[in-house]
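Build the 3D complex.
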Amino acid sequence: MEPIKIYPKALLNLQQPLLLGRPNGEKLTAIINSKLSGWDYLEKHHDKIIIVCDFIEGMNKSFFLGAFGQRVKILGAEKFREKYVFNCIATIKSDIDNEFIPASLLDFPITSTN
Amino acid sequence: MLKDILEWLKDNSVYATIIMQILLAIMIHFAIYYSRRNNERKFQEKFNLYKTLVLDRSSQLFIDLYDDFQYFQKFSANKTNLNYQAVLTEIEGRKEKIFVKFCLPIKLYDGNLCNDLENAIESLYTELATKLYVYIISGQNISYLVNETLSQSSNRIIEFLKLGAPTSIKRNKLQFIKIKVAIIFKNLNKLGKILKHLIFVQIT
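Done.
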């Protein structure tokens, strides 16, 4: 199974190199659902899902929870780490590993529909 | 037996109609009175909840938002070579405090109002984060932009907090009940006349 590369900035058509806000995260999931049959389909048919954030300079927790929160809950932290590879700067990667993934397991958003 | 009743009604139909009208009027009056009192009580309860969870806390919400924006304005002005991801983490932390302090209690009053407030705060902090980024990469003064963002968002928040206020009992509904009652009384007079006529026909 070939790995697949996902380019959030291009898919979301963002002007700034920033991945911010739960609505944007949920929008990314909606785009993946409509264009690529959803995260679960990609997980089944690809060895790894590479999230290319080469030129991304910041990602906040809300965005991560909106986009990947549900996947972390479904797969569990370890499997998520195995399946999803984030190509991004060290500070973002460190936040994903140490904050965003653990937070996803505890996330009970007030409004999220993801 | 039936004849006796009809005889009695023939002699006393006017009184019977009047007594029926009075009794019906009293019953309808109490029905409307209790229904209105019930509506007013529900409205008062809802308003008290709105006052406690929204009105009394909204000033503190704006103070906290203003403090956060001032903090990040100074934060960005005093530091060079900022790690943007660290700034984002700090913004996220402050946003979550606002969510917990203000949005969650409002959910007890109205889920939709809570969602609206959460979305507004989310977009407000996202905008702050974007503007801080612009400052960090370009070294521009963001104070004007930040104040403008806060002012616009505050106005938006005030608008939907106002719209979330409970509405009083529906006057239209009350008007509708009054018209119905008037029609009932009108029909009752007709009924009285028909009753008299029927009794007269039955006896003759």
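Residues 4-107 of chain A form one domain.
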